Structures are given as structure tokens and as C-alpha cells.
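Let's do one together. I've listed all components of the complex below, 308 residues spread over four lines.
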Amino acid sequence: MKALDAIDRRILTMLQANGKATNKEIAGVLGMSITPIYERIKKMEEAGYIKAYAAVVDRDLLGFKLVAYCNVQLKEHSKEYLEQFESQIASLEEVSECYHIAGMFDYLLKVHVQDVEAYRAFLADKLAALDNIGNVQSSFVMKPVKWQLSLPVE
Amino acid sequence: MKALDAIDRRILTMLQANGKATNKEIAGVLGMSITPIYERIKKMEEAGYIKAYAAVVDRDLLGFKLVAYCNVQLKEHSKEYLEQFESQIASLEEVSECYHIAGMFDYLLKVHVQDVEAYRAFLADKLAALDNIGNVQSSFVMKPVKWQLSLPVE
DNA sequence: TGTGAAAGACATCGCGA
DNA sequence: TCGCGATGTCTTTCACA
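Okay, and this is what the predicted structure of the assembly comes out as:
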């Protein structure tokens, strides 16, 4: 697929804001008929520009009262150790995101738990249970100031 | 709305994985008919358990080659300064997430930009242009190890 | 590429158990 | 609360400009 044009990008913006927007709605806003909208979306899905559609749930209502970002420094940095750590971390359900980062730490984890006690249990029983964990520094989210899934594609 | 039961949670799991899953598909998996699925989803939408539906786009394909987490320490911490910083940050399109955190810094920003130069420009022209910015420490994402939007609701 | 129309699938809403 | 059936809407495809 070629690069996206302005129309594709406007469609993406609308779908990021509302994944259930109908082709008809989009066509109406863009002043086009339904078919080209349908075909453009299909192509962007096939080309991977649109990776998925998802329902966004409310963390608080579902009882995940505590979100923490957890910076981790490993002791050993050989390839085997990194791969081992990554596969172990990926299997922890509390960890929704994990990045290998460049900076003062090796990995950054985003952790969702019910409360502070659950976070303590996560650190003590799961994270610290892994070999090779060096320094760990946690930041607790007190207030989300901004959260948007969408990227400014236009 | 009362608390979610096991069926609601299974529905949420499916919708988090695929926001376009049809009621028919879900009904089939859960061994129920379409109507109760439809009504349960409707109730979860109205009660706010489901906040939105969104298309998930591919950052890399769209040219956002650099993701950075940026820890910010402010100089002044009076209410007015915090509110001013938050409203200014929220208007920056590079910032997809911003949290007021407890820990070694005051705020954590997630920043999406095209490349390192764009990040430098963001820091120099936008972030540093704000009053009241003290210490700033950035971590660059080298490799996403795990990324999931969904929460383990079951 | 885009438009318009037609067929099929789905969401939505009564009614009954 | 759930299951079934009717209706309107959307998706999907096809012929054509």
C-alpha cells in the first residue's frame, strides 16, 4: 500500500476517536459516498495501519485503583538475561506495558493493581522473585492529567 | 448497575481483544443467545464500564519512530502552578499521556514524535518554554516488550 | 478512484416464558 | 433474565462512470 493521503488520515482520526463510527457517518463528514470509505478502511486494515479495534474499559470502575510505573535496573545485561527477564515479565498479568528503555534504567513497566497492598505483593512475590533484579524505583499515579489512545495522524 | 458477574467479565475480555466482535460471535462463544449479550453490553456502556471503542493504529507505520517517557520536576508546587502546567501539557499534541505522580518526580509524560530531532525540538521549544520547569529526565523506548490495552478483568 | 443500488448480516426492540 | 422473531440499519459487493 502506498503512503496515506489526507483522506485516509482523516478517517484514521475518526476511527481512533470512535472505533464504531459507521462508514456512513464517516462518508457524511468527509462528503463522500460509502464505498470509498469502506475500501480505504479495508486497505488500511490489511496494510497494518489499523492494528485492531478495542473496547476501552474504565480502570477505576473495574477496581484497578492503583497504577504504577516501575523502573527496573538489572544486574546482568547479557543477551540471555535480557531475554529471560522479558519473557518472565510478559507473563505477569499485572504488567500491561513493558519497554526496554535507554536512560537511567533498563526497563519501564506499567503495572495495574487493586491497591497498595497488591502492589507490595507484586513487588515482593513476583518482581523480586525474578533473578537478576537490581534496582527498582516506582512512581505511583495520583491523577491522570491526560490520556489518549490516539495519535495525531493528520 | 450492580457489580459485574462472570458473564459480563467474559464479554469485556472479548471486547477488549476485539471491539468489533459481534453479539452473535460473543453469544456463540458463551453459549447464549444474542439478546442478553446485547443488553449486558448496553448496560456496561451506560454504566461507564466501557468508556469507548477505538481503532488501534500502528505507531511505527505512521512515522512515530520515537516514544519517550519524560519525568518532570517543577520548581513551584502551588495549586495555581500545578493547574497551569497541567492545562499547558494537555494541549501539546506530542503528549499522549500525562500523570501526576508520587515518587522522585512530579509528572510523567509519554511523548510520541517522529525522531530524535523532533524530540529535541519538543523539549527545547515546547517543554522548556513553559515556566516553572525544573528538572527533566527522559527515557527512550528502544523496544516494546509488552503492550496491551486490556486489563485482566476475569 | 468515485457513485449508486442490491443482497446479506447485524443491531435493535417487542413479546413471551 | 433469557430466548425468539420482526424491522431498520449497516456492511459488503457489483456494475458503471
